[in-house]
Design brief:
By secondary structure, this protein is mainly beta. The protein has 2 domains: about 170 residues, 3 Solenoid (UDP N-Acetylglucosamine Acyltransferase, domain 1), CATH 2.160.10.10; about 35 residues, no CATH class. It contains 1 helix and 25 strands. It has a 9-stranded mixed β-sheet with strand order 1-4-7-10-13-16-19-21-22, with no helix packed on it. Strand 24 and strand 25 form a beta hairpin. The radius of gyration is 19 Å and the shape is globular. The protein starts with 10 loop residues before the first strand and ends with a helix. Bound molecules: coenzyme A. The site of coenzyme A (COA) has 11 residues, from loops.
């Protein structure tokens, strides 16, 4: 059953736990057993799937889709139009410990958060793990099951564990190809989408880094 929160233009399933200190944008839908913590900001028209966890102070833009069972921890920012596949984990502390050397429990204040940024339109495939402090470029595509340890360039396609740059993708999702005449400009390589004909110039050093 859907619940329409009074005076608000968004939907929250009754089994979801939404902090009153979270901000939820118009048109956003939050499904079964999701948790959104205090200080989190969700933009307009987002879809937050079953069992998703959104940690405190996380910032999420407009039109973001987070699939079932994904975890978005403190320190993470998702820009507009980001897709987070099922079971994705966006981490925040590179050297996590439950206890101090003296055996006492670490508090939230002891947690060393490295900010993680996922830029506009990027997609994270199912089960991907994003290490702390990484920036994922706009419309980049992270393959299912990848473990991302380094920044991903705009339109970059990364795969594997550790994730490696394997190519470039169009905003429509398909792989970009080099122009047949392999147009090499001063600054880089012109690539185009055989499906929608969109094109862009990829910096030479990135093009050469594809494996
Ligand atoms: C990465 C991805 C975009 C590649 O798609 P593609 O460009 O069509 O690539 P192909 O399927 O032609 O595979 C090319 C090669 O990459 C490998 N490959 C494909 N996906 C892979 C992945 N996730 N991790 C590692 N290798 C992968 C293939 O095995 C193949 O290698 P091979 O030639 O040695 O057999 C796609 O496989 C993927 O992971 N998409 C995300 C799906 C997802 O999580 N969706 C969430 C919605 S539920």
């Amino acid at each position: 059953m859907l619940v329409i929160m009074s005076n608000q233009n968004y939907f929250i399933h009754p089994s979801a736990a939404i902090s009153p200190q979270a901000s939820i944008g118009e048109g956003t839908r939050i499904w079964h057993q999701a948790q959104v913590r205090e200080g989190a900001t969700l933009g307009h028209n987002c879809i937050i799937g079953k069992g998703v966890y959104v940690d405190f102070d996380v910032t999420i833009g407009d039109n973001v889709k987070i699939q079932n069972g994904a975890y978005v921890y403190h320190g993470v920012t998702l820009e507009d139009g980001v897709f987070v596949g099922p079971g994705v984990i966006l981490t925040n502390d590179k050297l996590p410990r439950a206890i101090n050397p003296d055996g006492t429990l670490k508090s939230d204040a002891d947690w060393e958060v490295s900010p993680t940024l996922v830029k506009r339109g990027a997609s994270l495939g199912a089960g991907a793990v994003i290490l702390p402090g990484v920036t994922i470029g706009q419309f980049a595509l992270v393959a299912a099951g990848a473990v991302v340890t380094h920044d991903v360039p705009d339109y970059g396609l990364v795969m594997g564990n550790p994730a490696r740059l394997r190519g470039f993708v169009c905003p429509c999702g398909h792989r970009l190809k080099e122009k047949e005449e392999e147009e090499k400009l001063d600054g880089g390589i012109r690539m185009h989408c055989p499906i929608c004909q969109w094109d862009t110039v990829v910096p030479r050093e990135l093009w050469e880094a594809v494996r």
